[in-house]
Specification:
The protein is mostly helical. The chain folds into 2 domains: 81 residues, no CATH class; 47 residues. The protein is 59% helix and 0% strand. The longest helix has 28 residues. The N and C termini lie far apart (87 Å). The chain is elongated and about 90 Å long. The protein contains 8 helices and no strands. Keywords: Disulfide bond, Glycoprotein, Membrane, Signal, Transmembrane, Transmembrane helix. It comes from Spodoptera exigua (Beet armyworm). Belongs to the peptidase M2 family. One of its GO terms (biological process) is proteolysis.
């Protein structure tokens, strides 16, 4: 049987003991004795997994909350360690950097941020041509009356 770490962490609700650690020892000792897990697994692919979860634990979808709870000690340690060492998380945005990189690589990008300026000129040109056409049409109509 194969379950991913995030699924195992989410399934912590199923065991009577509550919280557990996802380890090989836990898999061999606890997974077989957990009644609800075996009840879920015995149905196999006879129904959608979300329906089986809904019937078993009353919740039809898995969420990331359990995974976040499981890794919260690591997240807290990383946060405090970054504060202690003065690490900067993320990057500063230079609006031209990505465009420069794409142009340097010889790539063309259609739509999105990089062509917004060109699109503006195209629309402006279209509106100007439309206005000139309208003026000419009105002028010819007035002249022929």
């Amino acid at each position: 049987m194969f379950l991913t770490t995030d699924t195992l962490v989410e399934l912590r609700l199923l065991c009577e003991s509550g919280w557990f650690k996802v380890t090989e020892v836990w898999l061999t000792e606890k997974l077989g004795s957990c009644f609800m897990v075996s009840r879920i697994m015995e149905r196999g692919s006879s129904a959608p997994w979300s329906q089986i979860l809904q019937e078993t634990i009353g919740e039809g979808r898995l969420n990331g909350e359990a995974l976040r709870d499981y890794f919260r000690p690591l997240e807290d340690w990383l946060r405090s360690e970054n504060l202690r060492t003065g690490e900067y998380l993320g990057w500063s945005y230079d609006g031209d950097y990505c465009k420069f990189s794409i142009e340097t690589a010889g790539l063309q990008v259609y739509g999105g941020f990089y062509n917004a300026a060109h699109r503006h000129y195209d629309v402006t040109s279209f509106v100007i041509i439309l206005l000139i056409s309208a003026i000419i049409t009105v002028g010819f109509n007035l002249r022929w009356r």
